[in-house]
Write a structure and sequence with these properties.
The protein has one domain (6-71). It has helices at residues 23-32, 37-58, 65-71, and strands at residues 6-7, 12-13. The chain has 74 residues and is mainly α. The protein has a two-stranded antiparallel sheet with strand order 1-2. It contains three helices and two strands. The protein is globular, with a radius of gyration of 12 Å. This is Flavin reductase.
Length: 74
């Protein structure tokens, strides 16, 4: 499994350059947290908060930040 991790403070994937979590990161996270939806949401919530802090410092918060980090988890 290839690691697709975020680069800070941009929160783009360090492997493919897409906004993190990229499509591959979502697949990897779904596998890693299989059967642990609550744990996945907790992890992503923490990442969301960290990203929010980084984006606030830069003055540009993406409009889709919540959907990007948490909305894809079903």
């Amino acid at each position: 499994m290839e690691e697709h991790l975020p680069e800070r403070p941009s929160w783009d994937c360090g492997k493919c350059g897409e906004a993190w979590p990229c499509a591959i990161a979502k697949v990897n996270l779904s596998i890693e947290y299989l059967g642990g939806r609550s744990a996945l949401l907790l992890y992503l919530g923490i990442q969301h908060w960290e990203a929010f802090d980084d984006y606030t410092a830069s003055g540009a918060i993406p409009a889709d930040l919540h959907e990007r980090f948490l909305g894809w988890v079903r």
